[in-house]
Amino acid sequence: MTHAAGRLTPCDVLGVGANSVDYVNRIPSYPEPNGSFSKLRILEQAICCGGQTATALATCARLGLTVRYIGATGTDENGKRIRAELAERGIGMSEAVIRDGANQFALIIVDEQTGERIVLWDRDERLRLRFRELPSEVLAAARLVHVDDVDESAAVVAAITARDLGLPATSDIDRVTPRTIELVETVSYPIFAEHVPRELTGIKDHAGALQKLRRSAHKALVVTLGARGCLAVAGDQVFHAPGFVVSAIDTTGAGDVFRGAFIFGVLNEWPLERTMRFANAAAAISCTRLGAMNGVPTLQEVSLLAESAPL
Q1: What are the φ/ψ torsions at residue 173 (nearest 5 degrees)?
Q2: Which of 20, 34, 173, 232 has the fewest Cβ atoms within 10 angstroms?
């Protein structure tokens, strides 16, 4: 634990959640079980670090925020790789857990034509984060807490603790489980993948679905829409921020980068529309590079694109 004069050093963002080592493969087109696309040559390969919370934190750090990470890593070479990568990016790792076993990893297949990807992943159950690995004093030393939906129990505890401390909490929610609603209700800024609000509510209209999910404690609810940007509900108002035109190489990690940039706007107390536009710009830039953390942009890059014309 990092201390200064016997006390925990404050940070801007504490992230609680997943990390991954990604094996990224670019191919000419999506494979098919029969025909000419049943066998495809790999055009480019790379080993890149990623993971929902880890990539969001890497974005926060690149934008100039001070960051600390709580998450479980393995004892294998991938575990060593992710710890070294996060530390090199200036992310505080004193609370990161090292547990016997293999680190989470993913095989990512990227379509050269569109940049869209398929993710095949695995995670040792021994990497599940435990309640006692979330010290309240560490949470209290942050200005904002960010969680994902990989270890939902730990995420809910972290978000409730943040709420009790009067801290904002953001989230990465990209799947639906029996505990998803509980997680949604505990964070200040639920940020959803496009399909999630519809699956939770049965409402196809994004704004209508977010309004049904809204609770009084929410600052805003946001759904990411890929190249179309994002949509948010705050109070009774609906906001839409269009996306930006880029030549996509790999969309891996774009949603995580969006969340990191969104956190930057929240901590700078920007208006919601400005924060959404800035986050869209960051996500768009990340799509122009191979890999999740490899796509994290600088503050100057994001600011320049955010000031340009969207779609």
Answers
A1: -120, 105
A2: 34
Whether the predicted pLDDT of 207 surpasses 90: yes
Question: Domain residues for 270?
Answer: 3-18+51-102+125-306
- In SS3 terms, the chain reads as CCEECCEECCEEEEEECCCEEEEEEEECCCCCCCHHHCCCCCCEEEEEEECHHHHHHHHHHHCCCCEEEECEEECCHHHHHHHHHHHHCCEECCCCEEECCCCCEEEEEEECCCCCEEEEEECCHHHCCCHHHCCHHHHHCEEEEEEECCCHHHHHHHHHHHHHCCCCEEEEECCCCCCHHHHHHHCCECEECCCHHHHHHCCCCHHHHHHHHCCCCCCCEEEECHHHCEEEEECCEEEEECCCCCCCCCCCCHHHHHHHHHHHHHHCCCCHHHHHHHHHHHHHHHCCCCCCHHHCCCHHHHHHHHCCCCC
Q: Residue 287: count other Cβ atoms within 10 Å of its Cβ.
A: 23
Number of independent structural domains in the chain? 1
Q: Is residue 175 part of a domain?
A: yes
Q: List, for residues 258-304, the tens digit of each pLDDT value.
A: 999 999 999 999 999 999 999 999 999 999 999 999 999 999 999 99
Q: Report in angstroms the alpha-carbon separations of 65 from 40, 150, 206, 261.
A: 42, 24, 31, 10
- Domain presence at residue 64: yes
- What pTM was computed for the model? 0.94
Q: Residue 266 domain-assigned? A: yes
Residue 221 to residue 189: CA distance in whole angstroms = 6
Give the domain CATH number at 244: 3.40.1190.20
Query: Looking at residues 6-11, what average pLDDT do you find?
Result: 80
What is the pLDDT, as a whole number, of residue 3?
A: 39
Does residue 30 lie within any of the structural domains?
no
